[in-house]
Specification:
- The protein has 344 residues and is of the alpha/beta class.
- The protein has a single domain, classed as Rossmann fold (3-Layer(aba) Sandwich).
- Strands 1, 4, 5, 6, 7, 8, 9, 10 and 11 form a 9-stranded mixed beta sheet that branches. A two-stranded antiparallel ribbon has the order 2-3.
- Strand 2 and strand 3 form a beta hairpin.
- Helix 2 packs antiparallel against helix 8, helix 6 crosses helix 8 and helix 6 packs across helix 9.
- It is globular and about 50 Å long.
- It binds S-adenosylmethionine (SAM).
- S-adenosylmethionine binds next to helix 2 and strand 5.
- The site of S-adenosylmethionine has 21 residues, from helix 2 and strand 5.
């Protein structure tokens, strides 16, 4: 039997085939092959494969589908994700979703769940809903609500969940992770119940300023975003996807599509107390994010060495932390629903 670290022992190494998604009495009750507790050699080899993390330039990366995703999965990255969850909570006034969900939904799916922090909050808010979270990395915690289950899975592969089984599917911050958004949305459409909702959240990869030209105030930061767009496109997993999510949902057949755009201040420049607090946290999250986003992409795709990356990111960091400049980025939240009466 494979030893599993505390942070991984509730994560299954493969999602169940044609899963029964009804709420299960225990997190492992309805799992299929390769669960964390399984002694099958298939489960064991898969589990060791997903935990055989890769190290590069001082950061730790996923091993399942190695090299496919360019952000790290180490503690620093997990802290950044959790910090962003807190900032979203502040700016979204505590709401976990924007789609008009009913309280009695039976199944929800968080694609690329990361640390699972949103999925766990959602599971608490919807105690009779079965919540599924998947990720390339088994970095979700042990102590989780009884109505949630995590799996290691590649969302770009064919899903093994039962079609038409989810009331809500959410994907947050997957810009840079997905090569084929049309396929992801098609699978989402097919796996939603008729009338079920999808919600996408992503940052647009552009810097704005409320009190001047961002090009003059933060030239390195502007360059950072240009490099990110160029490198992620070359890598065939573009980061800058947020502005086109509306069209993607409509093209995929979703209806009642709506969008809300939130400003995320880059440092505590706002006078409004909530925005100011969000800016204070976001200054830290953005500082961590520079390394997360830049390190692998700029070295693997643009061929920069580590010293070049460090010097460049230091210049970017200095600019975005300068409270004289009222810099912000936009987060796009887009939601829509599968029509009621159509075939799959
Ligand atoms: C920036 S993090 C966001 C995590 C979480 N959604 C949140 O908002 O806190 C993106 C996550 O997507 C996961 N991911 C990337 N590509 C994936 C894929 N093809 N299938 C499943 N998860 C993936 C990464 O491992 C990472 O945990």
């Amino acid at each position: 039997m494979v030893e599993s670290t505390p942070e991984q022992s509730n994560t299954h190494s493969s999602p169940p085939a044609e899963a029964d998604l009804s709420p299960a009495p225990s997190p492992t009750a309805d799992s299929a092959v390769g669960s964390a507790g399984s002694e099958s050699s298939y489960g064991a080899s898969l589990l060791s494969e997903v935990k055989n993390y890769k190290y590069e330039n001082g950061r730790r990366y996923h091993s399942y589908r190695e090299g496919q995703y360019v952000l790290p999965n180490d503690e620093m990255e997990q802290d950044r994700e959790d910090l962003l969850h807190h900032i979203r909570s502040l700016l979204f006034q505590g709401r976990l979703y924007h789609a008009p969900l009913k309280k009695d939904i039976s199944a929800a799916f968080d694609i690329g769940t990361g640390t699972g922090i949103w999925a766990m909050d959602f599971a608490d808010e919807f105690p009779s809903t079965k919540v599924i979270g998947t990720d390339l990395s088994p970095i979700q915690p042990v102590w989780i609500p009884p109505n949630i289950e995590f799996f290691v899975d590649d969302a770009e592969s064919d899903w093994t969940f039962k079609k038409g089984s989810f009331d809500f599917v959410r994907a947050c911050d997957l810009g840079g992770a997905i090569a084929d958004w049309a396929k992801l949305l098609q699978q989402t459409y097919e796996h939603l119940k008729p009338g079920g909702w999808i919600e996408l959240l992503d940052f647009a990869m552009d810097l704005h300023s409320e009190n001047g030209s961002p090009e003059q105030q933060a030239p390195h930061a502007m360059e950072f975003f240009r490099h990110l767009k160029e490198a992620s496109s070359k890598f065939n997993r573009p980061m800058d996807v947020a502005g086109n999510h509306i069209n993607r949902l409509k093209t995929a057949g979703f209806i009642d599509v709506e969008e809300r755009i939130y400003r995320f201040p880059d440092n505590p420049w706002p006078t409004d107390p909530i925005l100011r607090e969000a800016g204070r946290y976001n200054q830290e999250a953005t500082s961590m994010g520079l390394d997360s986003y830049g390190t692998a992409l700029f070295s693997r795709v643009l061929g920069w060495n580590q010293a070049e990356i460090t010097v460049f990111l230091a210049a970017v960091r200095k600019e975005i932390q300068d409270v004289r400049f009222h810099l912000y980025v936009n987060a796009h939240v887009v939601w829509g629903r599968r029509p009621e009466a159509t075939g799959l």
